[in-house]
Write a structure and sequence with these properties.
This protein has helices at about 15-30, 40-50, 60-70, 75-95, 100-110, 115, 125-145, 150-165, 170-190, 195-225, 230-245, 260-270, 300-315, 315-330, 360-370, 380-400, 405-420, 425, 435-450. With about 450 residues, the chain is mainly alpha-helical. It is globular and about 65 Å long. Mean pLDDT is about 90; it is low at about 1-10.
Length: about 450
């Protein structure tokens, strides 16, 4: 298969560059000085105190620390986050659209699509994840086309940075590492039977993704000052669901406040979020107002929690899956409940002396986003169906031996978004809309890339 990397059309490059710069400027203007959620405040506090926890990406805390040397608050982070996202989208658009400048501009314009653009100004690990995934997809696609080791290294480093932002980011990088492995192994296993060739490529690519995940986990554990054991809240959530659905308390007593039983667990459990499990029941500082669930760092208590979690899921697989599906239905917008935070509006924290009241322009954008969030463009399940359809069409094309690097890249991007969305079936703690950011973006990029299929075979 000969190289089909396009020649650059004279005079076409400035417009995509201008579009990407315009996107970054619009993001900064709309969200100045950068919106912040509780996660953002927690990371800023860690950066200020120097006491880090692996409950949040430690690497991002270091970026926060560096940003505070330049200016106090979130503005530098907003600049860096915007630059990462829009530069990644610009680079990937060049691979997706090839020599078609109009298609490249259309691909960059995906960044202005409300479900994508509405989250770009909040300082979240999810947006950093998306930015690094764009870069990883770009380098992986370049490696597929050129087979040069600098592009393979770029893909590996970008994927490592992505998985360092979110633990389930490993699901999104697997298709990218498989693409790199398939390209690298092709000369050595080209004469093998197709089934053996494909299985070996998938195995090596998956192994590479797990290795990158392991490196990021080891790094976070090594440099974090405290371990948060983030998995424990998911275990509590699943055990609470099994308890409520079987009418039998299976949560270890060490996880509950003194005197709490099945009734208390039932009162705070909801498929909408695990947050009520840890929320004070009232404002007074009394034992009655304490949260029903409590966390722990005791190795003995955590071991008991883990063993109970595994045992109860094995004993009640149907109930566990029903609970997980109900939560996932909230994530993909398949219920009548409103979208969870499609446009975050918190802009200040008094205890950190950050005060940036919203301008009339900011408020107007917020009202528009609120109205749009009730429309089908915020139904995440639609984008999941798009990804399934695109992946299916690509499989058909490949099975008919009409493969091209363009279709291979389409499959890579589509499967990245699909696997990332699927990871929330067992892992979602709430239906936060930001979880779907990469899925929505990748589905639209994959659709755009299909236009170039006919250019080469």
């Amino acid at each position: 298969m000969s190289s089909d990397r396009p020649e650059v059309v004279a005079g076409s490059r400035p417009w995509p560059v201008r579009a990407a710069i315009a996107g970054a400027l619009v993001t900064i203007l709309v969200f100045y000085p950068g919106y912040m959620s509780n996660d953002s405040f927690t990371q800023l506090k860690q950066a200020q105190t120097g006491m880090t926890s692996d409950n949040h990406p430690v690497l991002l805390v270091f970026v926060w620390m560096a940003s505070q040397w330049v200016a106090y608050g979130p503005f530098v982070m907003l600049l860096a986050q915007s630059a990462l996202f829009w530069s990644g989208l610009y680079l990937l658009s060049g691979v997706v659209a090839r020599q078609d400048t109009r298609l490249r501009l259309l691909t960059i314009a995906i960044g202005f699509f409300p479900p994508v653009a509405g989250l770009l100004g909040t300082i979240w690990k999810d947006i950093w994840l998306t930015g690094f995934l764009l870069w990883a997809a770009y380098f992986a696609a370049r490696f597929v086309e050129e087979r040069t080791w600098p592009t393979a290294l770029g893909a590996a480093v970008s994927a490592l940075m992505a998985v360092s932002m979110r633990h389930n980011g490993v699901a999104a990088i697997v298709p990218l590492t498989i693409a790199v492995a398939a390209t690298a192994l092709r000369p050595a296993i080209g004469g093998w039977r197709p089934i053996l060739r494909n299985l070996s490529q998938i195995f090596v690519g998956t192994l590479l993704a797990l290795a990158l995940f392991g490196i990021s986990t080891i790094f976070a554990s090594a440099v974090a000052d405290t371990k948060g054991y983030f998995w424990q809240v998911l275990a509590d959530y699943d055990l609470a669901a099994i308890s409520v659905r079987t009418d039998n308390l299976v949560v270890p007593s060490t996880r509950l406040k003194e005197g709490a039983g099945l009734d208390e667990v039932t009162n705070v459990y909801t498929e909408r979020s695990l947050l009520p499990l840890y929320r004070p029941l009232c404002e007074e500082n009394t034992s009655e107002c304490q949260p029903v669930f409590r966390r722990s760092t005791s190795s003995i208590e955590l071991h008991k929690l883990r063993s109970t979690w595994i045992r109860e899921i094995a004993a009640n697989p149907g109930i566990y899956l029903a609970h997980r599906w109900d939560v996932f239905s909230e994530v993909i917008g398949a219920t009548d409940n409103p979208v969870w935070a499609p446009y975050y509006t918190q802009r200040y924290a008094q205890d950190l002396e950050i005060a940036t009241p919203a301008s009339p322009f900011n408020n107007a954008v917020g009202r528009i986003m609120a109205r749009l969030s009730t429309t089908p463009i915020y139904w995440v399940w639609l984008y999941g169906l798009v990804l399934i359809a695109v992946a299916g069409l690509t499989v058909v094309r490949l099975s008919q031996k009409r493969s091209s690097r363009a279709s291979f890249i389409t499959m890579m991007v589509a499967m990245s978004g699909l696997l990332y969305l699927a990871s929330y079936l067992p892992l979602a703690p709430s239906p936060d809309f930001r979880y779907s950011h990469w899925t929505i973006l990748s589905s639209l990029v994959a659709l755009a890339s299909m236009k170039t299929w006919h250019e080469s075979t």
